[in-house]
Design a protein that fits this description.
9 helices, 6-stranded mixed beta sheet
């Protein structure tokens, strides 16, 4: 069983640290900056960094990869055909890899970038007892309360990618790469001002962030309630139509209107 810890980087990035306590080995996800990881390793000198998992090529997710590779000799995993520094194991949709004794599945989720992948671990069932919950490293595709911008992919691609992630088990813990939850939920409440569930979640997140707490991980059951994953709902369609000033029926068109609206939304 692994422990997962957030290492903060830049102003709002999270580098996720996976820890195999029994073996004193660890892995990190999307180290945009090497320093937070190196600081942790210096404070824990009996631990070995074995792997780096990268979701996509943006610098705030890859900037620390080369330095960590040099200092530790760790293995670097990431999307095939991408600009990932020191990449050892190129991954494609449907691949599986073993990290810290865990079987991790690779899901292609283009939209934010064309090379974006997510890492999914299914958890386990141990007899009649439930094992650890599934977990997902979603990078900049699925955020708590929202989704990433479309820098390279299309609205169709991102809509389809989010649908793939939303189909995973509801108890799946979601570890995304940024602390964007508060702004995402404020936008979600602007889309659906009468949605009591979103209002309650916003209030809870405001309390967490007021004490500089971390709003993650989320879970997929919770994320399915946010507008970007509910583009077939009448209330979401109506809100998108008000923004775009034309009736939106197709879920992808609704998604595109919401994403454009969010791009200019304050905060």
């Amino acid at each position: 069983m692994l422990c997962i810890q957030a290492l903060r980087a830049f102003t709002d990035n999270y580098i996720w640290l996976l820890q195999d306590v029994a073996q004193r080995r660890c892995a990190v996800v999307d180290p945009g900056d090497a320093e937070p990881v190196q600081d942790w390793l210096q404070r824990n000198p009996d631990w070995q960094l074995s792997d780096i998992l990268v979701t996509h090529h943006h610098d705030d997710h890859t900037g620390g990869v080369a330095a960590l590779k040099r200092s530790s000799g760790c293995r670097v995993l990431g999307p095939a055909g991408s600009r990932i520094p020191a990449l050892d194991l190129p991954l494609h949709d449907g691949d599986a890899c073993e990290v810290l004794g865990q079987r991790i599945e690779v899901i292609a989720v283009p939209g934010h970038t064309l090379d974006h992948i997510a890492y999914f671990q299914r958890g386990a069932q141990r007899g009649a007892q439930a094992g650890p919950r599934p977990w997902l490293f979603s990078g900049d595709t699925l955020f708590a309360g929202g989704c990433g911008r479309l820098f390279e992919g299309s609205a169709q691609q991102m809509h389809d990618s989010l649908a793939r992630l939303a189909a995973l088990p509801g108890e799946t813990e979601v570890f995304c790469a940024h602390e964007y939850t508060l702004g995402n939920l404020r936008f979600a409440c602007a889309v659906e001002p009468d949605n009591r569930e979103l209002r309650q979640r916003l209030e809870q997140t405001e309390a967490i962030r007021a004490r500089d707490g971390i709003s993650l991980p989320s879970n997929l059951a919770c994320e399915r309630a946010t507008p970007f994953l509910r583009t077939s709902e009448a209330s979401v369609r109506e809100a998108a139509a008000r923004f775009s000033r034309c009736q939106q029926a197709d879920p992808v068109a609704v998604f595109a209107a919401l994403r454009e609206w969010k791009n200019g939304f304050p905060g």
